[in-house]
Design a protein that fits this description.
The chain has 183 residues and is an all-alpha fold. The protein is 71% helix and 0% strand. The protein is built from five helices and no strands. The protein has helices at residues 15-31, 45-73, 78-117, 131-152, 158-179. Helix 1 (15-31) packs antiparallel against helix 5 and helix 4 (131-152) packs antiparallel against helix 5 (158-179). It is flat, with a radius of gyration of 20 Å.
């Protein structure tokens, strides 16, 4: 018995396939880092890890302030932005929680030093007057931070690299969701 030939599928990459592939590549890049804390390549990494976590927490908190500023200026966007803001808050909490665990495990000198030196200003970011521009500025901030975190993957130990990869992928997804209605 012969089977009918398969139906023709459209050529090209579908958007969903592209997004899933990009997220998978980011996670795999994070998984390729050595996660054995006793290995020679990560012997000096507690301070590096603590600094990276502190910076990631500050960056997420800055992004959270941007979301809050846009929500204050454009309350009609609340329904659209509330879930994304909640995820950014969860990312900041995850980075802070990891930094607290490292501090308790003996990495307190590095995290205390970075917390004291590089704190960003707590003033609210400037928000564009129209909603479309406000969403575009949030998308740009998400995209920029996702790119920054993807680059940092190569410099941090395994578990933190996996966390950064996941958060970077989420940030790229947020940037897409913030701009998808504009096309």
């Amino acid at each position: 018995m012969s089977f009918p030939p398969p139906s023709r599928t459209p050529w090209g990459v579908r958007r969903r396939s592209l997004i899933v592939s990009a997220a998978s590549a980011a996670v795999l890049a994070g998984c390729s880092t050595d996660s054995n804390p006793g290995s020679a390549s990560s012997a000096g990494s507690p301070s590096l890890s603590a600094r990276a976590r502190a910076r990631a927490a500050r960056d997420s908190e800055g992004l959270l302030r941007s979301y809050d500023a846009v929500l204050a200026a454009h309350p009609t966007l609340a329904e659209r932005l509330r879930p994304l803001r909640a995820e950014v808050a969860a990312h900041a909490a995850a980075f802070r929680e990891g930094a607290a665990k490292e501090k308790a495990a003996g990495g307190s000198t590095a995290s205390a030093g970075t917390a004291a030196t590089g704190s960003p200003s707590a003033s609210a970011p400037e928000v564009p007057a129209d909603e479309k521009s406000a969403l575009a500025s949030l998308a740009s901030a998400e995209r920029s931070l996702a790119d920054q975190r993807a680059k940092a993957l190569l410099e941090v130990p395994g578990e933190l690299a996996r966390l950064l990869a996941g958060v970077a992928a989420a940030g790229a997804g947020h940037a897409y969701l913030l701009t998808k209605g504009d096309q």
